[in-house]
C-alpha cells in the first residue's frame, strides 16, 4: 500500500513539475519574447518565407501591444529605449490588427522620399551599392504556396527567379540588402513624407513587393505608425523551412539556423 501511495505521489509531483515548467515558459514568452513566422516575401533577402524567429519584446520597453496582462500604462512605455534606424521591427497594424515585420527607416521629424527607386532621408540620398543578384527557384513557397515575383519575369515553374540586389547604407551606418523588381514601380517615386512626433516610417527590404509606410492605411498600407503599436525587435532567425510544414525536414534551410538579422 505504501509503495502504491509513493508511486502515485511521484506521478503527482511529475505533473506538478510539468505544469510549473509550462507556466514559467508561458510567462517567459509573454514577458520577453514572441514567436513570429515570416509569411511573405516583403523582407527578402534579409528574411525568407518560412523563417522562424523570436521577437525581443523588451528591446523598446513595453507598449500597448507588447505589454503582458495589465501591468503597463496604456500611454507611454516602461523601461523605454528608442528604436534605431535600421532595426527590423514587428508591430501591430493600426487598422487590420495583423502583425507586420519591416525595417525602420524614418524617425520622428524625418523627411522621407523615394526617387527613381532610391531612398532619400532629410534631403540626402541614401547610397546603394550593387551587390549581384538574389536568386531562387520559381515555385510555391511556404504554407500558402505563394509564388515569388521576379525581375526577369516571366519565369516558368522550376526556373530561376532573379532580382537585382543592392547594399544600402543608412545615415547611422547600418548596412542592409535591398532588392529591386520593377524599373519604375508604384512605390519607386513618392511625395515627401514628414514623420510626425511619436511615429515611425517603415519599409520592406524587397522594395517593390512591400506594402509599407509609403502606402496609406486606407489602401492597406502601414502609413505613419504610432509608437504604441510597436511589439519588439527581431534579432535572429532561429529556424527556417522552405516547405509547407516545418515537419518536412528535407526543406529545412540549415544555413539559416540562428542567423543574425542585419
TrEMBL record:
Superkingdom, natural source: Bacteria
Residues of the active site: 42, 102
Keyword Cell wall biogenesis/degradation set for record: no
Catalytic activity: Cleavage of hydrophobic, N-terminal signal or leader sequences from secreted and periplasmic proteins
Membrane topology field: Single-pass type II membrane protein
Keyword terms, alphabetized: Hydrolase, Membrane, Protease, Transmembrane, Transmembrane helix
Domain Peptidase S26 positions: 12-237
EC top class named in words: hydrolase
GO molecular function terms listed in the Swiss-Prot or TrEMBL record: serine-type endopeptidase activity; signal peptidase activity
Classification via Pfam families: Peptidase_S26
PROSITE patterns: SPASE_I_2, SPASE_I_3
A biological-process GO annotation: signal peptide processing
Subcellular location as annotated: Membrane
Main location, first listed in the record: membrane
Membrane-spanning residues: 20-38
NCBIfam families, per database record: sigpep_I_bact
Family classification: Belongs to the peptidase S26 family.
Protein name as catalogued: Signal peptidase I
Organism expressing this protein natively: Gemmobacter lanyuensis
